[in-house]
Amino acid sequence: MEEELSLILRFLDLEDPKKQAEFLTAHRGEVTDKFLTSAAVSLDYPETGKDLETRCSDLIHYLNTRVKYEKKRVL
Q1: pLDDT interval class at 70 (50, 70, 90)
Q2: Which of 23, 27, 29, 67 to pair with 53, CA 20 to 30 A apart?
């Protein structure tokens, strides 16, 4: 429980979508249902309610898409 909370807090401290995607990729094996729900809520990302692996992949894809389009918007 304490490790899960620590993981959630470390993710929430990251403000850059690229770093968030990297974090999720690096900690994919540690991700829990509660973690994914917290991450999705913090990002205003609507979850689909699928299995953990799919939800994690979808969230990483969402973050990578944000990185791609935020770069274009800045230019």
Answers
A1: confident
A2: 67
Q: What is the pTM of this model?
A: 0.88
**Six token digits for residue 6:** 């620590």
**Is-contact 52 32, C-beta < 8 A?**
yes
Residue with tokens 């609507």: 46
Residues 6+ apart with CB under 8 A from 49: 55
The number of domains in the chain is 1
Domain region containing 33: 2-74
CB-based contacts of 25-29 (< 8 A; 24+ apart in sequence): 25/60, 28/56
Token pair for 53? 């692996």
